[in-house]
Amino acid sequence: MKPSQHEISNRFTYHAPIGNQPDRYHAIREKARELALLLNDLCPASRELALAYTELESAIMWANASIARNENERNCRVTVPCCGRDTDKDGNCDIHSAPGVLRPLIPTISK
């Protein structure tokens, strides 16, 4: 199936960051960096490790593209855990549930 003209335009247009997107891009890169450091510690230098790094970079790129290409000022929502206040069924509190409002990032790393 061929992509529509709209889809082609969306894929090949620069999408300037809006709302809290830069913070989410940063959160994605930080988690990927943690995984890359773990791979570096646990895996021997090899072609396979190099491919793992390449695929991790691709995953970051596609995750960021999913945010950039599929959000606009009206539907820019946060996808990280909320601040811990009383939340609705979707995990949004009354303070941080408005589109484009930045929620504080809450660490979710478990050891």
Q: Would you write up a description of this structure?
A:
- The chain has a domain at 18-70.
- Helices cover 48% and strands 0% of the residues.
- The protein is built from three helices and no strands.
- It has helices spanning 5-11, 21-42, 47-70.
- The relative contact order is 0.15.
Q: Nutshell version of this structure?
A:
With 111 residues, the chain is mostly helical. It has a domain at 18-70. The chain contains three helices and no strands.
Any descriptors?
3 helices, mainly alpha, disordered C terminus, flat, 111 residues
Secondary structure: elements and pairs:
Elements: H1 5-11, H2 21-42, H3 47-70
Helix pairs in contact: 2-3
Which stretches are low in confidence, meaning pLDDT under 50 for 5 or more residues running? 99-111
Question: What can be said about the biggest beta sheet?
Answer: none
Helix and strand sequence: HHH
Task: Count all strands and give the number.
Answer: 0
Helix content: 40-55%
Tell the overall outline. Answer: flat
Mean pLDDT: 80
Number of helices: 3
By secondary-structure content and strand pairing, the structural class works out as mainly alpha
